[in-house]
Design brief:
heterodimer, A: about 230 residues, alpha/beta, Rossmann fold, 9-stranded mixed sheet, B: about 90 residues, alpha+beta, Mth169, Chain: A, about 35% helix
Chain lengths: ~230, ~90
């Protein structure tokens, strides 16, 4: 079962459930933030986009104190796969489950557009359906998406291969960074590899009718990983 | 007790908002404004036995909540008022 955590102010939670359930055929359920535990049988946790707690103080800063976050942290620390998109990425950074922080976009504009990202690391559980270097076209919609970290942290991320997605142009060459993210970083994973945060929205790109299906590469990889873990267990 | 805590971007972190405000100052004719950095000011009322305890609590609070230590610094500017008892 895929648990999509619903914070007050989340607004991509239902799209995430739709993508997993209706497009990919997975058992996906919404889990309210006030729950103390994840439902039994949770195999993956998704932190959706939106404006949790009105983005008060800083994006994601308040959601980190939600009752469900204790269980979310334990799930991540036990190695469970966890994916945070947009506000979910911000929550993961604020909670210290991923390094760095998402800052106000370089030019202060809210960006709502399709961007290209290059898959820097094609591996389970989030990008096994991708070829290394594959360029995905995904939508972004955020005002605070500029990934930022200390020079030492950035060096560590690069050395460990934790940069999963990088903004690029349609051909995969450098360019197309919509927000001023350092090192053109669009998505990173933790050192263990089970927690992934990204600013683009794979759940908004799962059907041709809504502008593309490249999001299936990411969400489908996660569905594959969960199925493989169950089969192998 | 009452306290003032400033949270500001670390000096080497770019501040696009401050930069936009600086440009607006220029546009208004205030060419003398060379730089603007935007931050946050928290006015906090708290109960503490003495200033030392209040400062310890505020330091903790700043690191855990008020500031994101990746990009922000904090400064406790003022702690005053009678020790809180209730």
């Amino acid at each position: 079962m895929f648990a999509v955590v619903q914070f007050p102010g989340s607004n991509d939670d239902r799209d995430m459930r739709f993508a997993l359930k209706s497009v990919l055929g997975a058992d996906a359920r919404l889990v309210w933030h006030a729950e103390a535990e994840l439902p039994p049988g949770t195999r993956a946790v998704l932190l959706p986009g939106g404006f949790s707690y009105g983005d008060y103080l800083r994006c994601g800063a308040m959601a980190r104190f939600s009752p469900i976050m204790g269980a979310v942290r334990r799930f991540a620390e036990a190695g469970g796969p966890m994916l945070g998109t947009c506000n979910g990425f911000q929550v993961l950074c604020e909670a210290g489950l991923l390094p760095g922080v998402l800052r106000r976009n370089r030019d202060l504009h809210f960006v709502c557009d399709f961007v290209h990202v290059r898959v820097e690391r094609a591996a389970a559980p989030f990008t096994s359906r991708a070829r290394p270097g594959q360029v995905l076209r995904l939508p972004v919609k955020h005002g605070e998406g500029a990934f930022c970290a200390s020079r030492e942290e950035l060096a560590r991320l690069e050395a460990n291969g934790q940069v999963v997605l990088r903004y690029c142009d349609a051909s995969g060459a450098p360019g197309g960074n919509p927000n001023g993210a350092l090192h053109d970083i669009a998505g990173i994973r933790n050192e263990a590899g089970n927690v992934f945060g990204l600013m683009p929205h794979p759940e908004h790109a799962v059907e041709g009718a809504i502008g593309g299906r490249d999001g299936v590469v990411i969400l489908g990889s996660l569905v594959d990983a969960v199925a493989a873990a169950r089969g192998g267990a | 007790m009452k306290a003032l805590v400033y949270v500001t971007l670390k000096p080497d972190v770019l501040d696009p908002q401050g930069e936009a405000i600086r440009k607006a100052c220029r546009t208004l004719g205030y060419g003398a404004v060379a730089s603007v950095r935007q931050g946050k000011l928290f006015e906090i009322e708290l109960e503490a036995a003495d200033e030392g305890e209040a400062r310890r609590l505020l330091e903790e609070l700043s690191d855990k909540l008020l500031a994101n230590t990746v990009i922000e610094d904090h400064r406790i500017a003022q702690v005053d008022g009678p020790p809180g008892r209730r």
